[in-house]
Design brief:
Length: 303
């Protein structure tokens, strides 16, 4: 050991084997017995099993917590369809396989689809045939009554005739909505029209949000129909029920938050019942083709 000058010197005379530094006789005997009975291999094998048990227990707990948090079995109504994301695909893999800007309608079909795998809604027997039958009858009845009123009011101001028809148009809208709910055809969609240079980025954001349970039940984007690179592409972001205004508002608010919709410019929400019945802008019934405008809905959200 070093002395006060830093030089190493012989330790004899400083600490001897009989020194109390090692404890008294009883303590030394106890330590010697403990040492003779100690097996390093036994200790580490036991400790290893203990650590493994702890790790296994922790992993099992994490798995249970994840299952409880999910609380739903992943679901995909488009499983097996090549034009849609599959549960085995990550979103980047899906986007690589089906890039919307260059995917051809002649090869893929008119639409690329993505579903919310966390959705709890399951098919409940949407009766599209009955919706179309009753809806078309309602439209025909409306047109017959409209022609009768216009005949009665022939020669009168257009505004006067329009005011007379307004309650009739409102009744037609209510009737179609009622039949749609009765026949399980309640889905609807917000519609976006990005230009080609924004198509892939916009679809990537929407597909990711749908899969992450942040938007609605499904979304789709039109594929390339060969109409040129200056034609916008339709993207539809669906909700399950057009009459669930809270959900409709939630989805448009999320699209605004994502930077895909401007508050100052409206996009529109259309119920699928109108699509099935061929009701579009400028229709002869006087119906608005869309149920909601985003500017109106967002104003309601801010209140």
């Amino acid at each position: 050991m070093p002395d006060s000058t830093g030089e190493w010197v012989d330790g004899d005379g400083y600490i001897s084997d009989e020194s109390s530094f090692y404890g008294n006789d009883d303590l030394r005997l106890h330590l010697e017995i403990e040492t003779s009975n100690f097996s390093p291999s036994t200790y580490w094998s036991t400790q290893h099993l203990s650590l493994s048990s702890i790790a296994t227990s922790n992993l099992a707990l994490a798995a249970r917590q994840a299952a409880q948090k999910a609380n739903v079995k992943l679901y995909n109504p488009f499983e097996g369809q090549l034009s849609a994301r599959q549960l085995t695909e990550s979103v980047p893999e899906f986007l690589t396989r089906l890039p919307p800007l260059t995917s051809q309608a002649s090869e893929v079909g008119p639409w690329i689809w993505v579903a919310n795998p966390h959705s709890t809604k399951r098919p409940i027997g949407e009766n599209l045939a009955e919706l179309k039958r009753i809806g078309e009858e309602s439209l025909e009845d409306f047109m017959e009554e409209k022609r009768r009123i216009e005949g009665e009011m022939k020669g009168k101001a257009k505004g006067t005739i329009t005011r007379r028809l307004t309650p009739l148009v409102k009744g037609l809208q209510d009737r179609i909505s009622e039949v749609a709910r009765e026949k399980g055809c309640t889905s609807g969609k917000w519609m976006l029209f990005p230009m080609p240079e924004h198509v892939n980025k916009t679809w990537s954001l929407i597909a990711t949000a749908v899969v992450n349970n942040e938007l609605g039940s499904t979304a789709k984007i039109a594929t390339d129909e060969g109409k040129g690179d200056r034609v916008s592409r339709l993207i539809c972001v669906y909700t399950d029920d057009f009459s669930d205004t809270d959900d409709v508002k939630r989805v448009i608010a999320k699209l605004v938050e994502m930077g895909l919709v401007e508050r100052s410019k409206s996009i529109y929400y259309k119920c699928d019942a109108y699509t099935y019945l061929g009701i579009s802008s400028g229709n002869e019934y006087g119906l608005k083709a869309s149920l909601y405008a985003s500017k109106d809905v967002l104003t309601a959200v801010k209140k």
